[in-house]
Amino acid sequence: MILVSVAGATSRAGKTALAASLIRALPAGTAAVKFTTTEDVFERCPRGSPCVVCDIDVPYRIVEDPQVLGQEGTDTRRLADAGASRVVWAIAKGAHVDAAWSAVLQRVEGVPQVVMEGSTIVDAARPDLLLFVLHPFLSPARWKPTSGPLIGRADAVVVNRPTAERREPSAVVLEALMAQGAARPRVADVTRPLAEWAPDLVARLRAGLPPDSRNHPERRARLGTESGH
Hints:
Strand content: 15-25%
Radius of gyration: 17 Å
Oligomer: single chain
Strand order of the largest sheet: 3-4-2-5-1-6-7-8
Helix content: 25-40%
CATH architecture: 3-Layer(aba) Sandwich
Structural class: alpha/beta
CATH topology: Rossmann fold
Low-confidence stretches: 44-49
Number of domains: 1
Largest sheet: 8 strands, mixed
């Protein structure tokens, strides 16, 4: 299984849009996973209403109900509309991310390619290819705490600038990326076909595996876990 992971600096950075573009670029049969991590101790949803994420009363929940996943306007519906052969939504409390990921792996066993959206899950999932996406103008002070390490590890960092936006990304954003080790961030509209702005990634994906990941220690560790070794 080839696992491609999309992480982001903030909500609405473009994670789902990028994941959808990846699904369209990959061969038919690609599955999608949305992985949501919530607080271990829940007090109140920021939306102020009942919430399937914040109101979780178990260590984790795996959502596979087509009626839930297919609701109009949801991220899971967008992943399905992009062509995912199967969509799995995992919701886990922070202390139970590893167990939830094991449950996800059971559900995508045998799938040749999986595109996953989520930031906190990266350490447990050990993806073959990691992409990090962020807003072109939002202050780095508002980035998630996980952003710095993920930027440094990402195979590609993408500043998601819509095609109609003519302004250059904020210098503060670009400087923060450089400080975290993103030597060559890409500026692109992630809703556009991947081949337009990342032909190198398309080539690596179509080759079956990124050339520099076959002996990657994280990939070896994950394959050992999957095979039971």
